[in-house]
């Protein structure tokens, strides 16, 4: 279990416009997503914005966290690991949503890297936990076979050597074929990071 705490970046008084949950990458911590969290907070002063701590300590990076282990991960076993981690992921989202008193439609999950994988994979559930999913440098473990109800925004750098942009392009093609609401923005020269240039693209999408 994780001993690190989630970070509430913005907690407005009164009625909330939405809940924004930031999901970090493997081996990382909630502090790593504060730049993105603060961007969302500035954009919507009425949103509850939380940088979430995953419930599991990393087995590769001391002091870090993970949603699932990548030790020995392959294309063949990644989906099973995601599936095993998904109940804890959705329970975390549900707990924050109940605390916020908002609907699924007013919940946005923004994930980076492994956090983006979990966010995207959650759109495949019968009871998807969010109305909007933002995936920075992410991909599906396996492509969906039915149309997600969530709006999906994919943001990727074309210089990402950790999570190649082809995974995001495949996700866009698949989601479009299923009739989903999806966008993909690719920024030249950006590597494996939720760069400010990606946030600028997202701002136009969410306008």
TrEMBL record:
NCBIfam families: PRK11460.1. Belongs to the AB hydrolase superfamily. AB hydrolase 2 family. It comes from plant metagenome. InterPro entries: AB_hydrolase_fold, LYPA1-2/EST-like, PLipase/COase/thioEstase. Residues 7-196 form the Phospholipase/carboxylesterase/thioesterase domain. Keywords: Hydrolase. Coiled coil: none annotated. This is Phospholipase/carboxylesterase family protein. It holds the Pfam family Abhydrolase_2. Its EC number is 3.1.-.-. GO terms for molecular function: hydrolase activity.
């Amino acid at each position: 279990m994780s001993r690190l705490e989630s970070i509430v970046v913005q907690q407005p008084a009164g009625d909330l416009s939405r809940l924004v949950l930031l999901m970090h990458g493997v081996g990382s911590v909630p502090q790593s997503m504060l730049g993105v969290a603060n961007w969302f907070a500035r954009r919507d002063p009425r949103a509850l914005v939380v940088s979430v701590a995953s419930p599991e300590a990393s087995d590769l990076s001391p002091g870090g966290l993970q949603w699932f282990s990548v030790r020995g991960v392959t294309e063949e076993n990644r989906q099973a690991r995601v599936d095993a981690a998904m109940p804890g992921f959705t329970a975390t989202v549900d707990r924050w949503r109940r605390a916020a008193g908002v609907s699924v439609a007013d919940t946005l999950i923004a994930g980076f890297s492994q956090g983006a994988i979990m966010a995207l994979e959650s759109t495949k559930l019968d009871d998807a936990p969010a109305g909007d999913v933002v995936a920075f440098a992410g991909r599906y473990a396996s492509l969906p076979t039915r149309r997600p109800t969530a709006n999906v925004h994919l943001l990727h750098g074309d210089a990402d050597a950790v999570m190649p942009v082809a995974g995001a392009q495949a996700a866009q093609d698949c989601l479009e074929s299923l009739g989903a609401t999806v966008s993909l923005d690719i920024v030249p020269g950006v590597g494996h990071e939720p760069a400010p240039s990606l946030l600028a693209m997202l701002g136009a999408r969410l306008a």
